[in-house]
Amino acid sequence: MEAVSETTAKRRKGATAEEMATRQRDISVSEFFAKNRHLLGFDNPRKALLTAVKEAVDNSLDACEEASILPEIAVIIEDLQPDRPATAKSSRYRLTVVDNGPGIVRKQVENIFGRLLYGSKFHRLKMSRGQQGIGISAAGMYGLITTGRPMVIHTKPKAGSAAHHIELAMNTKTNRAEVTTDEEVKDFPPARLATITSGTRALVAEGGFVSPETFRTGTSVSIELEGRYQRGRGSVDEFLELTAIANPHARITFVPPSRDAGSEDDASILAHAEANAATKATATTETGGVVIYPRGVQDLPPETREIQPHPKGIELGILLQMLKDYEATEKGSLFNFLQERFCRVSSATAAQMCKAAGATSRTRAGDVEAPQAEKLFTFFQEVKLPPPPTDCLAPIGVRQLLAGLLKGVRAEFYAASSRSAEVYRGRPFQIEAAIAFGGDLPADEPARVIRFANRVPLLFQQSACSSFKAVLETGWKNYNLQQPRGSLPVGPLVIMLHMASVWVPFTSESKEAIADYDEIRKEMKLALMECGRKLGTYLNKRAKMRREGERRDVFERYIGEIAKAVGAITGEDAKRLYDALQVQAKRKTAVADQQLDEDGKVLREQGELDDDGVLIVPTAMSDAVVSAPVTVAMPELAAPPARAKAKPSTPASPKPASRSAAPSSKPPAKPASKPAPAALSKPSAKPAAKPAPAAPFKPVAPRPPAPRRPSQDGPTLF
Ligand SMILES: Nc1ncnc2c1ncn2[C@@H]1O[C@H](COP(=O)(O)OP(=O)(O)O)[C@@H](O)[C@H]1O
Ligand SMILES: [Mg+2]
User: Fold this and answer.
1) What is the mean pLDDT of residues 346-364?
2) Which atom of ligand 1 sits closest to the CA of residue 219?
3) How far is the CA of 128 from the centre of ligand 2 (A)?
4) How far apart are CA 257 and CA 221, in angstroms?
């Protein structure tokens, strides 16, 4: 073996260190990512289109919120090769995203759009969608690589002044922008956008699209790129739908391209939206192909504050670097350094820390030696400190979670929970969960998990994500749902999880999945359990009401017969006996009359939401659930919503008189009105609907009633 390798080594002349040195050189960050564009989410044409939309929309939302402007965003995708053959795998598109944010000052345009790793969010600890400073410039770079076309930017930082029109391409060797057009223009948003389709023209006429009054300042970014537009899971449409759910304060208009590349099933959870649009003011609407996600709430999320790192969340190397930086900029004392560069360090704690490091409060930060820094670091771990402040976070909140889900998912039961802030590696974070159950959701499929980080939907790498693991690890059987071992629960269920943090630990640069920190997963599970408990309570209650309803029907079936027989024996008036029995039957099965909204709010009018985290929409109780019972609790759901507090409907409408009739015999119409109790109290007025118990004195049941022991206080049924 050795001999062989020796001879090979002799025959081949390898490179010398000097020769290798001639080839060793810098790698520019943009060259690196141009080669590894899959790391940034540009792996295939379909995902590339989505990623570009996502980066631009994220930036627009961030910018609007930072400037305290209610976001108004237009996303326009133009198909530049509409005549391509049907077999084409991809096509050239022009993506334009316009926002009414604060705009960008002229001198920063090249840096923002023409350089990777340049941004305002990386160095600060504050909740925002962007983090790394590679988002929009990477999208522009992908466009340049695939089409050779520069990015077109229009930005207007001052309401009264002209807008800038800049076209630039990134030089990947130098990671710098090369500007090809630079001029001042009057129109913002670019007038061209108004006339793109007949839908946009119609909307412009009513002031609902790129109107200069709404977009007084802002930015418009256009990128030409090779992409693929196809609806379904992981599509631009899904991304925008979910963004609208997590950002009910934003109004988003979307002009899709004229052609859809594929016929994948429309996995839209908003598929019902058009049908709903007539009745719900907040639902998505479509005008001539333009999709509008209207604003669900009029308030911006609470303003967030930037925080300093927490002493317990940093590493030794970082501490050393921070000391060096402080010396370079401030030349101040260790005492001041500790208070200024960390959160939760009071002057008393700072003095304690100086002492622990073997320094005085006057020691200069630059004079702190490595062993002293190490002592200081050890002390950081031991000292008791309050957790970091949480005003750097803007969670969605229970109310908005419910508003968002209600807007996007048509279900019968909604629950939400927002946990209080926790800390991982010294960084505060907050977990929120919400679930939607029943209604139009498919009953026999695994639950759908929708994941968000800092209000951004995460559409890929589900199984690598901490939130998905948390859903799997939650015991959904405890809440009356079916859950095959190690899998998602099965049932008409959508589970939403949101992590808000000053730094979301993504597993990769493309920001698709949240890393699996124990602290984070634990909080997620607790939030899910809270929602699960609310759902369990609701399902139990429905089950109980149904059982009692069935019991009452059994009683009802026989009391006519009993009243008649007892009347014949005792000479008592049979009608009076019947009424007395009826009262008893009602009393014993009173649960059946309970209102379902006792544990939560029934939605009576649009927008009437409370902070208790539960919402019930009885009118959405669907026959889909009824006819396909799949979970342990499903048979209970099979009950028509007789006892649910339903929206009052036309009182004259005929209703099925029986609540316990076999579901299969029911007409498939959606039960949306309050049936039965009236029929119970006025037996003679009961409509002769089919499987109903017959008129009081002529019971249909041929079986004789079971013998009952009479009690002292009058007629009872058991
Ligand atoms: N639409 C916009 N309006 C205002 N500022 C923007 C906009 N888009 C980007 N920016 C600025 O450009 C910076 C870089 O954006 P980006 O490359 O996406 O990185 P990141 O969002 O991670 O910081 C942002 O931090 C922000 O300051
Ligand atoms: Mg960004």
Assistant:
1) 93
2) 1
3) 9
4) 17
- Rounded CA separation 70/465 (Å): 31
E-assigned strand segments in 41-175: 72-79, 91-99, 151-156, 163-171
Å from CA of 561 to ligand 2 middle: 75
Residues in the chain: 718
Q: What is the mean pLDDT of residues 227-250?
A: 94
Confidence of residue 607 (pLDDT cuts 50, 70, 90): very low
What superfamily in CATH does domain 29-293 come from? Histidine kinase-like ATPase, C-terminal domain (3.30.565.10)
pLDDT at 642 over 80: no
User: Containing H/E element for 602?
Assistant: strand 601-602
* Strand partners for 451: 458, 497
Q: List, in sequence order, the alpha helices (H) in 79-197.
A: 109-114, 135-147
Model's pTM, two decimal places? 0.79
Single out the residue of 21, 28, 78 nearest to residue 197, CA to CA: 78
**Residue boundaries of the structural domains of the chain:** 29-293, 311-382, 546-685
> What is the reported pLDDT for 662?
36
Cβ count near 241 (within 10 Å): 25
Identify the residue with better confidence: 421 or 165.
165
Q: Is 80 exceeded by the pLDDT of residue 709?
A: no
Q: Domain 311-382 adopts which CATH fold?
A: Helicase, Ruva Protein; domain 3 (1.10.8)
Ion ligand 2: residues, CB < 5 A: 59, 130, 135
Lowest mean per-residue pLDDT among 356-370, 471-485, 626-640 = 626-640
